[in-house]
From TrEMBL:
This is DUF2007 domain-containing protein. Pfam families: DUF2007. Residues 1-64 form the DUF2007 domain. The lineage of its organism: Bacteria, Pseudomonadati, Pseudomonadota, Alphaproteobacteria, Rhodobacterales. Gene3D superfamilies: UreE, C-terminal domain.
């Protein structure tokens, strides 16, 4: 799996997840429960992961909607 997006903004994560799932791209969110450990102040970013073979398609979907994309190889 590759990281496709990292953000502290839960609305960006939710929007990106909805876009990717709408395109039938399997997406997995990491660090969801870290906010409980940090006191729910939002300093630790959440990460969206996609399968390696879907990363290029996921990147295109996010860029088409003006969302940031993590650097990956």
């Amino acid at each position: 799996m590759l990281e496709i997006l990292r953000s502290n903004d839960p609305t960006v994560i939710a929007f990106a997840t909805a876009l990717l799932r709408g395109e039938d791209i399997e997406v997995f969110e990491l660090d969801v429960h870290m906010s409980g450990l940090e006191g729910s102040i939002g300093i630790l970013p959440r990460r969206l992961m996609v399968r390696r073979d879907e990363a290029a398609a996921a990147e295109a979907v996010l860029r088409d909607n003006d969302l940031p994309v993590s650097e990956w190889s």
